[in-house]
Amino acid sequence: MTSPAPIALSEPEGLPDGLPEGTIWPGPDTLVLMNRQIRQDADPARLSRFADNRWELNEGIFEDHARSQSLNFEIVPESLRLATKYYIWQLINHPKARTMRRSKKGRVALHSIEIVFYNALQHVLKWFAAQGITEFCQVTDEMLWGYLDALDADNVATSKRYRRINEVRRLWIQRDLLPYFLRLPEAPPWDGEDTQVLLERTRGDRENRTKRIGEHTMQALLRWAVRFLEDFSEDILAAWGEYRTLLARRPEHMRGKRRRRQAGELQADVAAYIDRLRSRGESLPGTRRDDGTLEVAWRHIASQLNCAHSFEITASGRMIMESGLPIGEGVYLDTPVTAELDGEPWHPRISFDEVPRLARLLSTACFIVVAYLSGARVGEVLNLRRGCVRLDESTSLWLMEGLYFKGAEDEDGNKIPEGTVREEPWVVIEIVAQAVGILERLHESHLLFPNRLKPIKQTPGKEPKRRGEARSDRTIAEDLAKFTIWVNERCRQMGRKDSIPADPGGAIAPSRFRRTLAWFIRRKPRGLIAASVQYGHTYTRMLQGYAGSYEAGFLDDYAYEDWLFRMEGIAEDERRLLEGEHVSGPAADAYRYRVQAASREFAGRVLTSERQARDMLGNPLLQIHHGEGMTCVLNPAVAACQLRGSADDPMVTPDVDDCRPNCQCLARTDRDIEINKERAAELAEIVSDPLAPEIRHAREQRELDRLLTIIEHHELGART
Q1: Which of 39, 405, 444, 548 is the most exposed place for a label (fewest CB within 10 A)?
Q2: What's the confidence (pLDDT) of residue 397?
Q3: Backbone angles phi and psi of 607, in degrees to 5
């Protein structure tokens, strides 16, 4: 959120013809990020200059989880390289550089520039260069039509054609900001025709192709993640604490810091150490040499005794060698394993070298719980800070605060690179708060998910290109794969049957969590996910709490799943009606009308965005909700139940667990009547029991009479 210190820049030798007023022309030493915010930790000496063939963008990227980003102009044909650099520099720095038409955003984000540079623009430039173009002003209208033919001849995928055509349009849109030699023809490319018309096909990649994680895979993954938090975490945290203490006591870390012992004090410590090993029936920590022999792990013992490594050649060292204890193969911690699985320790004795892996697995388990059960975007989770969760005493809600990046814009519509604090926090359930608490005990980083759980020393002058501290999407995906491998190996060793099955959709990417959660909440609202955490409870917290604001983005994913669920239901309802299913109840006519009309209105409808699904859900034709033994044909104005959401909200739904018998929104299908018959049979058995308490007998008799009346009325209507 700062700008670099003033740097003397050499002036350009001359300005090009037709340079518009307000357009700055860069010289060889001009900063690439001259008019962009840069990180506070950026080194001014390392900022890229215009003359460089690789422009580093990292200093302008604020998301801590982002990968290293740069533009390599050596992939651009040499004949167009300089012109391309001038164009890209203006995209980065010109305050009026415009985005594509119909876009609501202002200046293009640095990350987006990198994406279009590699995915589309470079291919356009290579084709231009192959036609002998050295300056963009040489491109003609006829040549652009020829470019469309070339895309067709090369059988380029439709999604890639869209992107490459868009980059031609983007270059044309900027012509008012560029000098003559960088301007495409004045007329809009391809006579201004929409890309869809030009290609005579729609862009398939605009549909959300994020795959849900399979039900069995997600259930097992979450179950083991919760198990790590609730059962294994204390053992791992204790082992991690001992590991870090021993690591800090290594001789190379203690030079000049160790307390001088009094005479005989070290021998007493060694004697106590030997007695402790002997009383536990343990061997001396040891390692196996290349020749197969065992040697004492002196460095580890020195760390345990907090003494110099050289003690092995002293009298204290001789005490250890003369103790009579055998040398073991392995270096283990003193931390005991206390948690159990099926009455057995969940893990064998923990070795020193295995602790970092277990700590990373625990961190990954926390990520699964936080990311999945909050519904936050991956980048938002990876940028969470220490202290982000608190309990609101007035509402008894757990609130999680953090930054959001997608859609964070200033008043001019430009992306705010450092992100913006959410006005309304996510509402989460208690186990998410527990995961955050464990992460805060696991390390000292200000980020919850740092790339490394323990800080490392960096050699001056050799700092990494990307200074972001958070784990990236890629490393999280790798961690999820390692978590699954570990769990399945442990299940194999212990003969357990609850391993994590491979997902039919492929590798488990963190970006798939939101869509999966939306599916589970919609399809299994009362299903247990793990440790008595209910999706219904998650629904209540997320969709009716602060996280229910549209800023959170989760509602769009949920709406998409809700749309699919309702359309499947409408299709089944129509099939049943065509087969002669009878419907009774005060809303029977409304039910039949909505099913038939919705089928005509929405059959074959293709959605291009989740938000479109959310808007469509407000259509009254889709307000059919099946419950247990009844169907709600919702009219919020007359509904007798407690609605979920406000009456004017397209996401409003009835509480089918709070259905009132006198509600005018009720309809009953043959399927509902079958359920009511089963209930009536159960009640009849209770009522006929002479030992049933009188008050219970009276209550169940009233309910039985009500159900029999409903059944009789329905069957009478079916016969007439």
Answers
A1: 444
A2: 81
A3: -95, 140
Q: What pTM does this model have?
A: 0.62
Alpha-carbon distance of 113 to 98, in angstroms, equals: 12
Q: Hey, is 71 helix, strand or coil? A: strand
DSSP for 329-368 reads SB-B-S-----EETTEESSSSPBGGGHHHHHHHHHHHHHH
* Residue 354 pLDDT level (bands cut at 50, 70, 90): very high
> What range defines the domain where residue 297 resides?
227-345
Distance between CA atoms of residues 4 and 131, nearest Å: 41
**Own/partner long-range contacts of 250-253 (Cβ < 8 Å, ≥24 apart):** 250/299, 250/302, 250/303, 251/299, 251/302, 251/308, 251/309
Mean pLDDT is highest, among 32-41, 107-116, 204-213, 582-591, for: 582-591
**CA-based nearest residue to 342, from 221, 484, 491, 234:** 491
Note whether 171 and 315 are same-domain residues: no
- Of 345, 370, 391, the last residue of a domain is 345
pLDDT, residue 302, reads 86
Mean predicted confidence (pLDDT) in 264-276: 88
Separation of alpha carbons 124 and 121, rounded Å: 5
Nearest in space to 38 (alpha carbons), one of 46, 50, 27, 28: 46
The alpha carbon dihedral of 326, 329, 332, 338 has a sign of: negative
Q: What is the pLDDT of residue 458?
A: 46
Cβ 562 vs Cβ 547: under 8 Å: no
CB 489 within 8 A of CB 189: no
Has residue 6 been placed in a domain?
no
Q: How far apart are CA 265 and CA 685, in angstroms?
A: 81
Distance CA 612, CA 599 (A): 18
Residue 481: in which H helix or E strand, if any? helix 473-494
Residue with tokens 């009774």: 584
DSSP 287: E
**What one-character-per-residue DSSP string does 90-118 give?**
HHHH-TT----TT----SPPHHHHHHHII
Give the C-alpha separation, 426 to 401, whole Å.
Answer: 6
In this structure, are residues 630 and 610 in contact, taking their beta carbons and an 8 Å threshold? no
Q: What is the mean pLDDT of residues 235-263?
A: 82
Helix residue ranges per DSSP H, 524-633: 535-544, 554-578, 588-602, 610-616
d(CA 690, CA 178): 93
- Reduced to 3 states (helix: H, G, I; strand: E, B; else coil), residue 399 is strand
Q: Considering only CA atoms, which of 170, 192, 19 is closest in space to residue 105? A: 170
Q: Tell me what the mean pLDDT of segment 320-349 comes to.
A: 90
Most confident of 123-127, 624-628, 663-667: 123-127
Between 403 and 546, name the one with better pLDDT. Answer: 403
Residue 274 corresponds to which tokens in the numbers above?
């030997």
Asked if residue 316 and residue 386 are part of one domain, the reply reads no
Pair 522, 619 in one domain: no
- 462 domain residue, yes or no: no
Q: What is the pLDDT of residues 47-65, one digit of tens each?
A: 999 999 999 988 888 777 7
**How many CA atoms are closer than 13 Å to the CA of 120, on its beta-carbon side?**
20
d(CA 170, CA 120): 11
Which of 517, 548, 579 is the endpoint of a domain?
548
pLDDT at residue number 345: 92
In-domain check, residue 96: yes
Tokens linked to 356: 């970092």
